[in-house]
């Protein structure tokens, strides 16, 4: 099928004084701090696909670090696989370390991260890491209520995996998760530092709105922000919070709660500066394009969510933290290959590929490219010249194909 989206590039009123995003080169140097349980895997997948489409280099962890940069150790460039240097994009889990990233990434790198509302985030952490994190394992009957009743009875600040049990966002951002709530000076200074470093702090509850801001910040196209939700739990693995729990979670994770409140407010200020009508229009177009893409990948219907055991293709099975939590994923229809070019099949596959498998695939392809480049490169040239990227030209007859006209984007999916 084919679809034409008009007006996506007409720009928003607040941006009319700037060149339309369609005419500016896309910004390609991005450090996305992948925080835990915040929709960050969905973002990572989007960034991996952007990197592949544009032939960019993604910094990936050395094998000894697994698919994360040796989290929870503080990030250092020694954790980066040499075949993935010099990078344009970095997005795998890490504990943020500004000085090391500044050394590794190009000077014009945009720093981006994502936060989630502390109540739902903590419920997700508590369920996902229940069998790993001792602070959670100690709690009788795995009861979230019991933990929050007396957190200090179960929590040990210095033990392994304690960062999943308190102020996980603060920890991921490089901060001190155990600063007391009364240390307002620390909290303010930490917040100011995050504000200084990150050009955009996305909010998981307003994922699409955050993507609209991201698109404007980076001069990206609609095609670049299409995604499928990844790493979701089944409804039966989720618990609704009983009255009183959200405020206990906020009190226990007070640094995270402060971060969330601050950046949620600043997200809405940025959205309002862009223009609510413009944001709503772009969100609508994004959702429509997303639905079309999904239908095209899943034989005309919306995909059925499946638990890992039901997924036949092992490249598409998400990692399960324990038998007690069900993480859902997707399977592609068996007859997808009929009428689809290999490029279109690849797009559908990558769109739903879980983090661990995609990291492996990307490392393999980048290592191959590195070895080929190494053979061809004169000895002293370390960084190939990079051209600004604007138009993704059709590389065959199958999409997504984005053609730029004045103020119009056409996405063609066959
Ligand atoms: N687009 C979008 N919008 C809102 N929420 C989303 C989205 N994509 C994923 N999710 C939810 O994010 C949770 C998984 O987060 P992460 O991928 O960051 O987890 S992980 O730390 O990498 O394991 C997980 O939350 P829970 O289901 O509550 O556990 C996902 O359902």
From TrEMBL:
Superkingdom classification of source: Eukaryota
Keywords attached to this Swiss-Prot or TrEMBL record, sorted alphabetically, are: Glycoprotein, Golgi apparatus, Membrane, Signal-anchor, Transferase, Transmembrane, Transmembrane helix
InterPro entries attached here?
A: Gal-3-0_sulfotransfrase, P-loop_NTPase
The biological processes this protein is annotated with in GO are: glycolipid biosynthetic process
Membrane topology per record: Single-pass type II membrane protein
**Cell compartments where the protein resides:** Golgi apparatus membrane
What's in the GO CC field? Golgi membrane
Query: What molecular function terms (GO) are annotated for this protein?
Result: galactosylceramide sulfotransferase activity
Asked if the keyword Iron-sulfur belongs to this entry, the reply reads: no
Native organism is: Sander lucioperca
Task: Tell me where it mainly resides.
Answer: Golgi
What Pfam families has UniProt attached to this entry? Gal-3-0_sulfotr (PF06990)
How is this protein named in the record?
A: Galactose-3-O-sulfotransferase 3
